[in-house]
Design a protein that fits this description.
mainly beta; globular; disordered N terminus; single chain; 41% strand; 238 residues
């Protein structure tokens, strides 16, 4: 009986130290953007010239171009618009609102490099991604300079992809993650898709990083280069 008690006591001690080690070694950092102050149906697009905003351990960079009332990098928004292809659609997530029925989310536009820096090194774990309404409608119907994905008969192998690259403490590439925001390369056209909901994307293979870089690419040069992001989660090392 004493041996059994001693055995379970040892297990409890080991479990205690493991839990303490995890708690003392890591701190979870989640960017859900809900604490950013916005009036209903509005956005921040960097027009104040600040060049970035911070949330938790993360710095989201922004370049604003007043001559075009446009930007590169990140903005934050709570705009709901999934129907109309207009200027406000550039600030709207296609699924209507943030992930998990939240209000705020971020929208990224690629003109210059899209970058998030971490104030402390972090291990990205998970993020939710989706299309911007402006891009989704452009590739669905072929607005402006964008091609209608799939072409006239739906058989053209079009695609729209986001690549996330981790940059380590010594500026080395730690890994990449690809996520297709639209894919029309399937033999069965019924499997073709344009992402219209928030998708979870695993980032664990990026490892320990000081920066994330984002690059949008498409089979069509006219595709508007936007995407939306919410709930970027990682672990900060103490």
């Amino acid at each position: 009986m004493n041996i059994i008690k001693s055995f379970f006591y040892t297990i409890l001690i080991v479990a205690f130290f493991i839990s303490c080690t995890d708690e003392d070694t890591f701190n979870t950092d989640v960017s859900d953007f809900e604490e950013l102050d916005l009036e209903e149906q509005t956005y921040w697009n960097g027009s104040d010239g600040s060049g970035y905003f911070t949330y938790g351990n993360k710095i989201f960079y922004n370049s604003y171009y007043p001559d075009w009332n446009s930007w590169s990098g990140f903005v934050y928004s709570n705009v709901i618009n999934y129907l109309y292809y207009n200027e406000i659609a550039k600030y709207a997530a296609f699924p209507s609102g943030g992930a998990d029925e939240s209000e705020n989310y971020v929208v990224a536009h690629q003109f210059e490099k899209i970058v998030i820096d971490f104030e402390e090194g972090e291990e990205p774990r998970l993020v939710q991604l989706t299309n911007c309404t402006y891009t989704a409608l452009a590739i669905k119907y072929g607005y402006d300079y964008s091609k209608k994905f799939g072409g006239r008969d739906g058989s053209d192998p079009d695609w729209f992809k986001l690549t996330i690259t981790g940059i380590g403490l010594s500026n080395e590439i730690t890994g990449t993650v690809d996520f297709f925001l639209a894919d029309f390369r399937f033999e069965d056209n019924n499997e073709d898709y344009i992402v219209n909901k928030w998708n979870f994307v695993d980032l664990t293979n990026l490892g320990y990083v000081k920066r994330l870089e984002f690059e949008l690419s498409s089979s069509d040069a006219g595709t508007p280069l936007y995407f939306c992001m919410d709930n970027l989660k990682g672990r900060i090392h103490y």
